[in-house]
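Board notes (copied after class):
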Amino acid sequence: MARTWGSITAAPRAPLEVLQSITKDGGFSWSEPHVVAKVAGKNPCEPFVFRAPDGNELCSLLRENTHKGRSLVMFSTDEGATWSEPSDTPWGLTGDRHNGVQTKDGRLVIAFRDQSLQSPTRGHFVAWVGTYEDIKQSRPGQYRIKLLHSNAGPDCGYPGVELLPDGTIVTTTYIKYRPGPEKQSVVSVRFTLAETDKLAAVASPIRETVSTGTKESRSRTQTEAAIQTAPKTARPIFWRSVNDDSSKKASSIAAPA
Protein backbone atom coordinates (compact mmCIF):
# COMPACT_ATOMS: atom_id res chain seq x y z
CA MET A 1 0.00 0.00 0.00
CA ALA A 2 1.32 3.43 -0.90
CA ARG A 3 2.05 5.63 2.07
CA THR A 4 0.63 9.12 2.18
CA TRP A 5 2.80 11.99 3.31
CA GLY A 6 1.94 15.61 3.82
CA SER A 7 3.98 18.76 3.59
CA ILE A 8 2.90 21.97 5.31
CA THR A 9 4.85 25.11 4.52
CA ALA A 10 4.49 28.84 5.02
CA ALA A 11 4.67 31.78 2.63
CA PRO A 12 7.94 33.78 2.89
CA ARG A 13 6.50 37.24 3.63
CA ALA A 14 3.86 38.79 5.87
CA PRO A 15 0.98 38.29 6.02
CA LEU A 16 1.95 34.64 6.33
CA GLU A 17 -0.25 31.69 5.43
CA VAL A 18 0.33 27.99 6.01
CA LEU A 19 -0.14 25.76 2.96
CA GLN A 20 -0.45 21.98 2.71
CA SER A 21 0.54 19.61 -0.07
CA ILE A 22 0.19 15.80 -0.03
CA THR A 23 2.05 13.00 -1.76
CA LYS A 24 0.84 9.40 -2.11
CA ASP A 25 3.89 8.08 -3.97
CA GLY A 26 6.78 8.83 -1.65
CA GLY A 27 7.37 12.35 -2.96
CA PHE A 28 7.46 11.77 -6.72
CA SER A 29 4.35 13.90 -7.11
CA TRP A 30 2.48 16.32 -4.87
CA SER A 31 -1.01 17.72 -4.74
CA GLU A 32 -1.61 21.38 -5.49
CA PRO A 33 -0.82 23.38 -2.32
CA HIS A 34 -3.81 24.90 -0.53
CA VAL A 35 -4.10 27.19 2.48
CA VAL A 36 -4.87 25.49 5.81
CA ALA A 37 -4.09 28.33 8.23
CA LYS A 38 -4.71 32.03 7.76
CA VAL A 39 -5.35 34.30 10.76
CA ALA A 40 -6.13 38.01 10.55
CA GLY A 41 -3.48 40.10 12.27
CA LYS A 42 -1.19 37.12 12.82
CA ASN A 43 1.57 35.41 10.87
CA PRO A 44 1.40 31.62 11.30
CA CYS A 45 4.39 29.63 10.05
CA GLU A 46 6.80 26.76 10.80
CA PRO A 47 4.24 24.09 11.80
CA PHE A 48 5.13 21.04 13.87
CA VAL A 49 2.62 18.25 13.20
CA PHE A 50 2.30 15.17 15.41
CA ARG A 51 -0.28 12.52 16.29
CA ALA A 52 -2.42 12.35 19.39
CA PRO A 53 -1.48 9.45 21.69
CA ASP A 54 -4.49 7.42 20.47
CA GLY A 55 -3.49 8.01 16.84
CA ASN A 56 -6.88 9.40 15.83
CA GLU A 57 -6.03 13.09 15.57
CA LEU A 58 -3.30 15.33 14.21
CA CYS A 59 -2.10 18.39 16.10
CA SER A 60 -0.13 21.22 14.54
CA LEU A 61 1.74 23.78 16.65
CA LEU A 62 2.43 26.97 14.70
CA ARG A 63 4.94 29.73 15.23
CA GLU A 64 3.20 33.11 15.29
CA ASN A 65 5.67 35.52 13.76
CA THR A 66 4.34 38.87 15.01
CA HIS A 67 5.42 37.73 18.50
CA LYS A 68 2.75 39.94 20.05
CA GLY A 69 0.79 37.11 21.67
CA ARG A 70 0.82 33.34 21.85
CA SER A 71 1.67 30.64 19.35
CA LEU A 72 -1.15 28.88 17.50
CA VAL A 73 -2.51 25.35 17.42
CA MET A 74 -4.95 23.52 15.14
CA PHE A 75 -6.29 19.97 14.92
CA SER A 76 -7.39 17.50 12.24
CA THR A 77 -9.50 14.36 12.71
CA ASP A 78 -9.44 13.33 9.03
CA GLU A 79 -5.72 12.90 8.33
CA GLY A 80 -5.25 16.53 7.35
CA ALA A 81 -8.09 16.80 4.84
CA THR A 82 -9.52 19.58 7.01
CA TRP A 83 -8.20 21.50 10.00
CA SER A 84 -9.79 23.39 12.86
CA GLU A 85 -9.44 27.16 12.98
CA PRO A 86 -6.07 28.06 14.56
CA SER A 87 -6.38 29.14 18.20
CA ASP A 88 -3.95 30.29 20.87
CA THR A 89 -1.73 27.74 22.58
CA PRO A 90 -1.25 27.71 26.34
CA TRP A 91 1.11 30.50 27.38
CA GLY A 92 3.93 28.07 28.11
CA LEU A 93 4.00 26.73 24.53
CA THR A 94 4.52 30.15 23.00
CA GLY A 95 7.65 29.98 20.90
CA ASP A 96 9.25 29.23 17.57
CA ARG A 97 10.37 26.05 15.83
CA HIS A 98 8.60 23.47 17.97
CA ASN A 99 9.66 19.83 17.87
CA GLY A 100 9.00 17.04 20.34
CA VAL A 101 8.40 13.43 21.31
CA GLN A 102 5.93 11.39 23.32
CA THR A 103 7.53 9.54 26.22
CA LYS A 104 6.73 6.04 27.45
CA ASP A 105 4.44 7.37 30.19
CA GLY A 106 2.39 9.30 27.63
CA ARG A 107 3.70 12.76 28.37
CA LEU A 108 4.97 15.10 25.66
CA VAL A 109 8.34 16.86 25.68
CA ILE A 110 8.37 19.74 23.19
CA ALA A 111 11.48 21.86 22.64
CA PHE A 112 11.51 25.32 21.05
CA ARG A 113 12.85 28.85 21.22
CA ASP A 114 10.92 30.60 23.97
CA GLN A 115 8.85 33.60 22.85
CA SER A 116 6.37 33.74 25.75
CA LEU A 117 5.62 37.33 26.67
CA GLN A 118 7.33 38.41 29.90
CA SER A 119 9.09 35.07 30.19
CA PRO A 120 12.46 35.15 32.03
CA THR A 121 13.82 32.74 29.40
CA ARG A 122 12.50 34.50 26.31
CA GLY A 123 14.85 33.96 23.37
CA HIS A 124 16.51 30.93 24.96
CA PHE A 125 16.18 27.18 24.29
CA VAL A 126 13.49 25.57 26.45
CA ALA A 127 11.34 22.44 26.70
CA TRP A 128 7.70 22.10 27.75
CA VAL A 129 6.51 18.98 29.58
CA GLY A 130 2.82 18.12 29.68
CA THR A 131 0.10 15.97 28.14
CA TYR A 132 -1.82 16.05 24.90
CA GLU A 133 -4.96 16.96 26.84
CA ASP A 134 -3.12 19.95 28.29
CA ILE A 135 -2.76 21.25 24.74
CA LYS A 136 -6.34 20.37 23.79
CA GLN A 137 -7.78 22.05 26.90
CA SER A 138 -5.32 24.98 26.82
CA ARG A 139 -3.86 24.03 30.20
CA PRO A 140 -0.37 25.16 31.27
CA GLY A 141 1.21 21.71 31.29
CA GLN A 142 3.40 20.25 34.03
CA TYR A 143 6.54 22.40 33.83
CA ARG A 144 9.05 24.03 31.51
CA ILE A 145 12.81 23.61 31.47
CA LYS A 146 15.46 26.06 30.37
CA LEU A 147 17.80 23.79 28.44
CA LEU A 148 20.38 26.24 27.10
CA HIS A 149 21.18 29.94 27.41
CA SER A 150 21.62 31.83 24.15
CA ASN A 151 24.44 34.36 24.12
CA ALA A 152 23.30 35.75 20.77
CA GLY A 153 19.82 36.93 21.65
CA PRO A 154 17.01 34.86 20.12
CA ASP A 155 19.24 33.29 17.47
CA CYS A 156 18.74 29.61 18.25
CA GLY A 157 16.27 26.81 17.68
CA TYR A 158 15.19 24.53 14.82
CA PRO A 159 15.72 21.65 17.25
CA GLY A 160 15.78 17.95 16.84
CA VAL A 161 14.29 15.88 19.67
CA GLU A 162 14.84 12.14 20.05
CA LEU A 163 13.68 9.59 22.61
CA LEU A 164 16.25 6.85 23.20
CA PRO A 165 15.27 3.28 24.17
CA ASP A 166 16.34 3.84 27.79
CA GLY A 167 14.04 6.88 28.15
CA THR A 168 16.77 9.49 27.68
CA ILE A 169 15.62 12.55 25.75
CA VAL A 170 18.15 14.20 23.45
CA THR A 171 17.45 17.74 22.27
CA THR A 172 19.76 19.34 19.70
CA THR A 173 19.90 22.94 18.51
CA TYR A 174 22.23 25.49 17.03
CA ILE A 175 23.07 28.10 19.67
CA LYS A 176 25.80 30.46 20.85
CA TYR A 177 26.17 28.71 24.19
CA ARG A 178 29.00 30.83 25.64
CA PRO A 179 30.04 34.50 25.47
CA GLY A 180 33.02 35.54 23.39
CA PRO A 181 33.93 35.81 19.71
CA GLU A 182 32.86 32.26 18.82
CA LYS A 183 29.80 31.84 16.62
CA GLN A 184 26.95 29.38 17.09
CA SER A 185 27.61 25.70 17.75
CA VAL A 186 25.41 22.64 17.41
CA VAL A 187 24.72 21.48 20.96
CA SER A 188 22.79 18.54 22.42
CA VAL A 189 21.24 18.31 25.88
CA ARG A 190 20.45 14.87 27.34
CA PHE A 191 18.05 14.32 30.23
CA THR A 192 15.33 12.01 31.51
CA LEU A 193 11.95 12.96 32.89
CA ALA A 194 12.85 11.09 36.07
CA GLU A 195 15.66 13.62 36.57
CA THR A 196 13.61 16.70 35.76
CA ASP A 197 10.61 15.48 37.78
CA LYS A 198 12.84 15.24 40.86
CA LEU A 199 14.23 18.72 40.31
CA ALA A 200 10.76 20.16 39.87
CA ALA A 201 9.47 18.36 42.97
CA VAL A 202 12.15 19.63 45.38
CA ALA A 203 12.48 23.20 44.10
CA SER A 204 10.78 25.94 46.11
CA PRO A 205 7.73 27.24 44.21
CA ILE A 206 6.73 30.89 43.96
CA ARG A 207 2.93 30.86 44.11
CA GLU A 208 0.38 33.24 42.67
CA THR A 209 -3.37 32.73 42.82
CA VAL A 210 -4.89 32.82 39.37
CA SER A 211 -8.49 33.80 38.82
CA THR A 212 -10.67 32.48 36.02
CA GLY A 213 -13.39 33.86 33.79
CA THR A 214 -13.38 37.61 33.19
CA LYS A 215 -10.16 38.11 35.18
CA GLU A 216 -8.13 35.80 32.96
CA SER A 217 -6.05 38.58 31.40
CA ARG A 218 -5.13 40.11 34.77
CA SER A 219 -4.45 36.69 36.24
CA ARG A 220 -2.14 35.78 33.38
CA THR A 221 -0.05 38.88 34.06
CA GLN A 222 0.16 37.93 37.73
CA THR A 223 1.35 34.48 36.79
CA GLU A 224 4.01 35.79 34.45
CA ALA A 225 5.18 38.29 37.05
CA ALA A 226 5.58 35.46 39.53
CA ILE A 227 7.68 33.55 37.02
CA GLN A 228 9.94 36.54 36.58
CA THR A 229 10.79 36.58 40.27
CA ALA A 230 12.63 33.25 40.04
CA PRO A 231 16.32 33.67 40.97
CA LYS A 232 18.29 34.64 37.89
CA THR A 233 21.22 32.50 39.01
CA ALA A 234 19.17 29.30 39.02
CA ARG A 235 19.84 26.95 36.11
CA PRO A 236 17.80 25.26 34.85
CA ILE A 237 14.53 27.03 35.55
CA PHE A 238 11.29 25.11 35.95
CA TRP A 239 7.74 26.27 36.31
CA ARG A 240 4.55 24.30 36.64
CA SER A 241 0.87 24.58 37.37
CA VAL A 242 -0.69 23.43 40.63
CA ASN A 243 -4.45 22.79 40.75
CA ASP A 244 -6.83 22.03 43.60
CA ASP A 245 -10.60 21.92 44.00
CA SER A 246 -11.07 25.52 45.12
CA SER A 247 -8.74 27.60 43.00
CA LYS A 248 -6.29 27.54 40.14
CA LYS A 249 -2.73 28.33 41.11
CA ALA A 250 0.44 28.70 39.12
CA SER A 251 3.93 28.13 40.40
CA SER A 252 7.35 29.25 39.26
CA ILE A 253 9.90 26.66 40.28
CA ALA A 254 13.61 27.44 40.20
CA ALA A 255 15.95 24.50 40.60
CA PRO A 256 19.19 24.99 42.51
CA ALA A 257 22.15 26.03 40.37
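Comment from the instructor: Confidence is low (pLDDT under 50) at residues 206-257. The chain has three helices and 17 strands.
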